Amino acid sequence: MARSEGQKRKLLLLTELLRQESDEAHPLPMERILRHLEANGIQAGRKSVYADLQCLQDLGMEILRTPGNHGGYYLAARLFELPELKLLVDAVQSSRFLSEKKSLELIAKLEQLSSRHEATQLRRQVVVSGRVKTMNESVYYSVDCIHEAIARNSRITFRYFDWDRQKNRRYRPGLYEASPYALCWADENYYLIADSARHGITHYRVDKMTSITITGTPRAVTEESRNLDLGAYSRAVFSMYSGQVQPVRMRFSNALAGVVIDRFGRDSMLVPDGASHFTFTAEIAVSPMFLSWMAGFGGKAQILYPASVVEQYRALLQEALETCGPAK
Q1: Distance between CA atoms of 278 and 272, rounded to whole angstroms?
Q2: Helix (H) or strand (E) holding 281
Q3: Quick check: 95 and 206 in contact, CB under 8 A?
Q4: Torsion-angle region of 130 (φ positive above 0: left; ψ -120 to 50: alpha; else: beta)
Q5: What is the DSSP letter of 29?
Q6: Which of 275, 271, 278, 279 is nearest to 249 (CA)?
Q7: pTM exceeds 0.70, yes or no
Q8: Nearest to residue 136, comparing CAs of 177, 184, 180, 95?
Q9: How many CB atoms lie within 10 A of CB 20?
Q10: Alpha-carbon distance 117 to 271, whole Å?
Q11: Which letter does DSSP use for residue 23 in this model?
């Protein structure tokens, strides 16, 4: 092996060793570094390793040395710190749109961004089994395809399905075509917000989309799409169920102020209504999911306006009451 090639291998081996085996609590003694190089076919002296470590530092790696009998060298800074990796692991394992298999694959890759010792702390957090996960293995790649279509300003076509009681896919008729505008994370699922020739501005659950094809046809530009406020759209649609968007005035107990702010944002204007209540008006896509959300607060929340929505709310509550079993 030429000397220059051996030197390149030595730098790569040192980099890999520091990233995988070292951290502040586990510095690498010089003897350990020399043994690792020798095990990989490279004879090196201390002086040359000192020079290599300095070279890596000059290239931007933050390598520190702890003194003493148990001291050694370790990588002090990484692209992701351990608390950041823990957050990413939490996000991956709680994401419903990722299958259990894909979640475990991604977490294994995240572990490689830490030392071997710190990776054990990430594994202790992994509780993927038993969580509600998508049954569509291709959703991970569907998201990537949609992002590419948006970047290329292209329409897409796809098939769309629902699940039946036997857990089989039941595809809706025909091939869907849409102009994708954004991906939205809501209710633990990924949704595509798009302009559809069938429905105008609408949304689709990505884990129910298959056979996505980038057509190359430029996306449709309509008055509705030009005026689309993606943030307002996602706030207005409850659980991503479609409904006619209209202003709805509601009255809540003061104890629910935090719930309203969490749902609609800190810019929400809460108007005092007596000592114990406030009113709030928002653009809402009125749907059964919105009405059910209100019903969940019992007597602490009510719909004031418009009358048509009040009637829808009463009808939903009456239907729920009539379908209850007899009191025992």
Answers
A1: 4
A2: strand 277-286
A3: no
A4: left
A5: P
A6: 279
A7: no
A8: 95
A9: 14
A10: 53
A11: B
